[in-house]
# Entry
Amino acid sequence: MKSILDQDLILKGKKVIVRVDLNVPMKDGAITESSRIMKILPTIKLLIEKKAKIIIFSHIGRPKGKVVNGMSLKPISNKLSDLLNQEVIFNKNAISEKISVEIDKIKDGSVMMMENIRFYDGEEKNDDTFSKTISNLGDIYVNDAFSCSHRAHSSIEGITKYIPSYCGLQLVDEINALKKITSEIKRPVTCIIGGSKISTKIKIISNLIKDFDNIIIVGGMGNAMLKNTGINIGKSVCDEGYKNLVSEIIEKSETHNCKIYYPLDVVVSKTLDGNGTIKEITEVNNDEMILDIGPKTIESIKNIINNTTTVLWNGPAGYFENPNFANGTKKILEIIANKRLKDKIYAVAGGGETVAVINKFNKFNTFSFVSTAGGAFLEYLEGKELPGIKALK
# Structure
């Protein structure tokens, strides 16, 4: 893939369409978490420095091809303006030849943000006519939205058919980080994977087993592993079809010599808002739920991580929304942080819940790289080729 760092690329005076992901959480019109905005700053600043005319495409929510007042990018445009310390021109007008004239008139180094690209019916349909229409607004296209690159949409895939296309700095960072846990691994390599349902992560686990030395399964997924051994998990969350899923994991792990770990002890409660009691895995009562991992499990994870060179973390260890069941997740963060300080291991984290946890405990610096890409991150780990990445190759 060509990137905007390519020496032969002339950017001065060029109209550069930049597709980013600014789908940030909002409440009452205010942005509540801005990590996705922060991630695009290096690319935008570089384009400003190179005196390009920057046209930003992005989206928020799922308006399904219709204008929805509560899904305007105007508040995000204002926030980006503050972060860049320069005006971001917000263009709420419909895409047309008139818009193209307005773009021609802006100064080199200026930034213009277009209204929510998903207000257009042709975007999610990857309509060829719409793809060509938006391509006419620029001379060069830059994809800096890895988190949207699993979608074959006009502003991700279709537009690349019509103008020279490059990847932005964030997308390069994301791909490089993922390579280090999929194809350019320094071993031993360990994956800590959690979440409520093993069915949603089975493809990831199956794809990683062949290259990973250890996979530590926690959270609701750990319950499935325990239940498969005959352990009573009470009224804990567990996939109905867990037996086939667990069997697949065990069989593949034996074939590829990957060690599978799951909880040795747990924290239980009768309710989600309870205080929690540490128990051996054989002591769980029928009316109790497993909501976190216990101290023996944490110590076991510590020993594994201390003998690891590369770590991938996806999914919390328990019901972290209640502080009484957040200890396992917090301890995993501390273990990885301490190991990085001591031995500088390469540690990657990603996935929606995972980023929420990292934000909650303010631990972004714990990791070498934190992916905010959500679905694209998970699909890449499953071994899928993402349409947005394929289009840039």
In short: The radius of gyration is 23 Å. The chain has two domains: 15-171, 180-381. The domain at 15-171 is CATH 3.40.50.1260 (Rossmann fold). The first helix runs from residue 35 to 49.
